Amino acid sequence: MIRHQPSPSHLVLACFALAFGCAVAWAKDETVPPRSSEPSPNEKAATDSVPLPPAAMPEKPAVIAPAEPSRGDEASAPKPAEAQVPAVKPAEKPAKPAHATDEIHGLLNLGVSLTERGDYDAAEIAYRQVLNARKVATEDLKTALLGLAHMHRRQGELTKAAAIYERYLKDYPGDERTPDAYLDLGRTLRSMGVYKLAIARFYNVINSTLKLPSSEGFDHYQLLAKTAQFEIAETHFQAGEYAEAAKFFARLRLLDLAPTDRARASFKSAYSQRLQGDLDGAVGAFKSFIGQWPDDENVPEARYLLAVTLRELKRPQEAFRAVLDLLHAEKSRVAADPKRWAYWQRRTGNQLANDFFEGGDMLNAHAIYSSLVELSPEPAWRLPIVYQLALCYERLGLPERARTSYQSIVDGIGASPSPDLAELGVMAAWRIEHLAWRDQVEKQVTAFFESSTGKVLAATVPVAPLKTAAQ
After folding, report:
1. Largest CA distance in the chain
2. Nearest alpha carbon to residue 304 among 41, 42, 44, 40
3. Nearest to 361 by CA among 231, 369, 33
4. Is the pLDDT reported for residue 96 higher than 80?
5. What is the gyration radius of the CA atoms in the chain, in angstroms?
6. What is the pTM of this model?
7. Residue 373: count of CB within 10 angstroms of its CB
């Protein structure tokens, strides 16, 4: 048994839970097992990155910084999302033993409820009360162990969770919930960075499902086996073994998976090709994914990666079209997940427009900046983009349009600007003064040459007499 000495306040809470469980007679017919699938993975929460003007000299472009990438093999690559695999429901439990008490079942349900609410200390007390009880059915002990391990995973105590899963698998090697335990143990080990051992545990999931009777939860075990294969591919991906990841994700696309999972495998396969250096193959894979699954949640990120990859392959016009496809996506698709689309639209537009600007391609840069302006009416977003457009006008030889854009920035910021826009207002005002100075100099130079240059040349340059053939 796992021993734990609770504090007095915790004992009071546990007693209250016991009384409450008896009163309402929780779970009279069935023990509620802990969920075997891990909590919803970290979706790249789409954040509205606020573009900032540069702190460099005013004559340099105000580079709008895209959101900071989190991981990848290069600075431009965003963090790949963790594996989002088919939801696996726990296998159904046999009928509880007759001697199981309502108090035990109440504690088990209480542990599940407290874990979901994030009250981990109280949840641990509930589970340990079951484990330390004198007369507890074996099925209830199993449920308490798995629930305690799941609670530690949610809490972030991965070492404790792994130890409990290992104990469960050692004590109950042929249990029907063994595949679920192996799956959660593999996910726990992967989160700890122990990739090889995690892959071994995922293979244990597949092997253990083959040893169980086919009549007991066949559909559940089949889903577990598919999920384990997805987790193996994802573990190779997170370990940086992109060639292996691409191979496993390509195999997954051939399985009888749900459409969402097949789409996710297709996206991860293309991403793996890019990260392993097969840029041409990645371009084709991303295009195939976008064409086959246009409504998948990973399409915005796929369009970003496609544009960046084309840019790296020195195919600027294709990259330019890929950016515009992302910025001009259908409103119905954007409305389905506006934060995600906004994040990737802004990041892609910022990065590629700045690349075109720095490369001297003002027309493509201007076109992308013009589309970026329309994404949001917020001054903190629009005004830095307008500054970039004004710089493009200067480079294109359109000083009046540049001056108008700079003045709109000064007017929009006002006399008491916010701290994040104050420097931009100073830069815009400086550019206006610079344009006025340049106009004055050009007028003076033009007037000088028109009034004096021709006369000076006629008066000072001697003209040699023509010589004839006789001379």
Report:
1. 138
2. 44
3. 369
4. no
5. 33
6. 0.69
7. 17
Q: Are 257 and 229 in contact (CB under 8 A)?
A: no
In this model, does residue 400 exceed pLDDT 80? Answer: yes
Question: Is 96:139 a contact under the CB 8 Å cutoff?
Answer: yes
Neighbours of 265 (CB within 10 A): 25
Two tokens, residue 428: 């815009």
Contacts of 464 (CB under 8 A, 6+ apart): none
Choose among 71, 115, 466, 98: nearest CA to 271. Answer: 71
pLDDT digits (tens, 9 = 90+) for 100-159: 468 899 999 999 999 999 999 999 999 999 999 888 889 999 999 999 999 999 999 999
Question: HEC states along the chain?
Answer: CCCCCCCHHHHHHHHHHHHHHHHHCCCCCCCCCCCCCCCCCCCCCCCCCCCCCCCCCCCCCCCCCCCCCCCCCCCCCCCCCCCCCCCCCCCCCCCCCCCCCHHHHHHHHHHHHHHHHCCHHHHHHHHHHHHCCCCCCHHHHHHHHHHHHHHHHHHCCHHHHHHHHHHHHHHCCCCCCHHHHHHHHHHHHHHCCCHHHHHHHHHHHHHHHHHCCCCCCHHHHHHHHHHHHHHHHHHHHHCCCHHHHHHHHHHHCCCCCCHHHHHHHHHHHHHHHHHCCCHHHHHHHHHHHHHHCCCCCCHHHHHHHHHHHHHHCCCHHHHHHHHHHHHCCCHHHHHHCHHHHHHHHHHHHHHHHHHHHHCCCHHHHHHHHHHHHCCCCCHHHHHHHHHHHHHHHHHCCCHHHHHHHHHHHHHHHCCCCCHHHHHHHHHHHHHHHHHHHHHHHHHHHHHHHHHHHHHHHHHHCCCCCCCCCCC
Is residue 381 predicted with pLDDT exceeding 80?
yes
Other CB atoms closer than 10 Å to residue 272's CB: what's the count? Answer: 27
Q: Tokens standing for 393?
A: 């006008």
Residue 154 identity: R
How many Cβ atoms are within 10 Å of 106's Cβ, its own excluded? 24
CA distance 337 to 335: 5
